[in-house]
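User: Okay, second chain of the day. Same drill as before: sequence in, structure tokens out.
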Amino acid sequence: MISQVNGEKPAGGLLALLRRVALIAALVGALGSVGLVLQVGRRKHSPRLLLALFVIWVLSPFVALVVANIASKSWSVITRATLYSVMLVVALGSLAIYGDIALGPLGAKTVPVFVIVPPASLLLIATVVPMAALLSARLSRRRQRT
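Assistant: Same drill. Structure tokens below.
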């Protein structure tokens, strides 16, 4: 069966597995990142409102990934596979970076990390996924010409 949207075969087992793993990683990454933010906030005795704002900030890339996942149903296989890969990279990268800060000694460079990682993650998402979509569209056009 051929999809009417992009002319590709429907996503099979490997893509479905990658999607499941990516969604689980995003959930674990989001929960773990929030936990690490709260741990650092408690160690630094941060005000609750500030902690709540940091939690929202740290969750923003994960929310963007879930929204993109919901919107990706009609996307090409290449674009969806790229999205799922980015989900894994953002989840694992966030946990690694935040874990290094939260489990290490507290220093002056703690807060900037929690400020910089979310927009860097959003920038990664906003560049890599559209690039994959463009590549997929070009490949699709080439296949139609031949």
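Confidence is low (pLDDT under 50) at residues 1-8.

User: Thanks, on to the next one.
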